[in-house]
Amino acid sequence: MTTAYRPPRDNLWFARTRHYAFFVLRELTSVFVAWTIVFLLMFVDAVRTGSLQEFAALAGRPWMIVINVLALAATVFHTVTFLNLAPKATVVRLDGWRVPAWMIQGGNHSAWVMISMLIAYFILRSP
Predict the structure, then answer these.
(1) pTM score of the predicted model
(2) CA-to-CA distance for 97 and 103, rounded, in angstroms?
């Protein structure tokens, strides 16, 4: 009885090329995106239940600030790479003309910046 040849598994396969490394890094940033959603839900719950003081005390701790700064950086990286992949996942045609990738990316990034600026305006405006 013969057995099929199975090459040894390389645990660092993603470190071979930059594209693989970015792929794995982007997938790992999903954990921080999930944390951002959980943190936002904790904030909404604190506002809803009136325990904003306790939430602010928790959010002000140094380890929580570090986690949230890392989550912000990871979420921005995740967003940029997601928006850059959109033209590869979606082909947009207008009257038979294929919209170039740079137009789709530019529209995505422009919408992201404008929505972020709108949210920042409402959050940072003086009462």
Answers:
(1) 0.76
(2) 13
